């Protein structure tokens, strides 16, 4: 009868919720110890000049090596964000980035830039700007080699706060990219007042290319008018690359060129002198 079905559904629902909550609690508890247990690592995905194939920089993407598995940031970043653990995790990412940049300058004599993702809670946290300035100083990194990536959505969370923070980052010399651009609802008139250097066209609009190109065209035009660098993310094939090339996009990132790579592999393939010769 209906009552029995209803109560069955309820208990099924309750069981599901309990499992979800349990997974979440476990994730949360393990995340707390992940830094101290050395379970995080960074992968680097190259950004290339799509006309010359030359490396222009890379993006640092965090991975969590936990109990023998590599856990995607899509799974744990939201939990880290909600619990606030994102703040120390984000600090760890910035510090590792500075360490790598410092090593690369000494070893490979390169001025490759690294883009770091900063989540909205980390962006809002008062420690971000003093932390990043202190790290750049300590590792002797020119701030222009570090590009902060903030999603369009988190910028729009609190636009006044965002403008204030971005101004501070800019005056300290850091690069600023708006990530996943086109997926949020930013007002174009605000965009003009944000001291940003780069727009990253969200993968969703790159995957529509070449046929469905209205959004990508609009972003490229906007970028040109505002004198911003445009990076197309998630390029997966030659047709997408061809369209971007002939429509004025200069920088590309995506599986078509390379997946995010473990640090040693990235260094071997993109920074070691021999590989640079082979590539050009
Ligand atoms: P995102 O910043 O937009 O990074 C791009 C994501 O797209 C990466 O996924 C990358 O591996 C993936 N990708 C790149 N090229 C392609 C392609 O051609 N095809 C497809 N299908 N995917 C491609 P990943 O590494 O899993 O990261 C997912 C998201 O997690 C990132 O999106 C970013 O929002 C967040 N994230 C990653 N690392 C960090 C971090 O250190 N801090 C914070 N706060 N968030 C991070
Ligand atoms: Mg990003
Ligand atoms: Mg993105
Ligand atoms: Mg994204």
From TrEMBL:
Record domain EAL: where: 24-274
Name the UniProt record assigns to this protein: EAL domain-containing protein
Organism: Shewanella avicenniae
């Amino acid at each position: 009868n209906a009552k029995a079905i209803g109560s069955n559904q309820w208990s099924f629902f309750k069981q599901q919720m309990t499992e979800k909550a349990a997974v979440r609690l476990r994730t949360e508890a393990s995340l707390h110890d992940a830094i101290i247990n050395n379970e995080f690592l960074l992968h680097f995905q190259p950004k290339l000049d799509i006309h010359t194939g030359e490396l222009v920089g890379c993006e640092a993407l965090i991975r969590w090596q936990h109990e023998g598995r590599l856990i995607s940031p899509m799974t744990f970043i939201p939990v880290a964000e909600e619990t606030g653990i994102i703040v120390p995790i984000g600090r760890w990412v910035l510090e590792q980035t500075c360490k790598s940049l410092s090593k690369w300058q000494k070893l490979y004599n390169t001025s490759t830039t690294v883009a770091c993702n900063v989540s909205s809670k980390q962006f809002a946290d008062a420690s971000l700007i003093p932390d990043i300035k202190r790290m750049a100083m300590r590792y002797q990194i020119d701030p222009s080699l570090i590009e902060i990536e903030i999603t369009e959505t988190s910028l729009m969370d609190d636009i006044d706060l965002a403008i204030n923070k971005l101004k501070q980052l800019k005056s300290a010399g850091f690069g600023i990219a708006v990530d996943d651009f086109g997926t949020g609802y930013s007002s174009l008139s605000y965009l003009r007042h944000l001291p940003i250097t780069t727009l990253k066209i969200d993968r969703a609009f790159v995957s529509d290319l070449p046929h469905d190109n209205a959004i990508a065209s609009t972003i490229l035009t906007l970028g040109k008018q505002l004198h911003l660098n445009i990076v197309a993310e998630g390029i997966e094939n030659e047709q997408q690359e061809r369209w971007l090339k002939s429509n004025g996009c200069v920088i590309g990132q995506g599986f078509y060129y390379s997946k995010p790579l473990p640090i040693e592999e990235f260094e071997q393939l993109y920074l070691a002198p021999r590989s640079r010769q082979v590539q050009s």
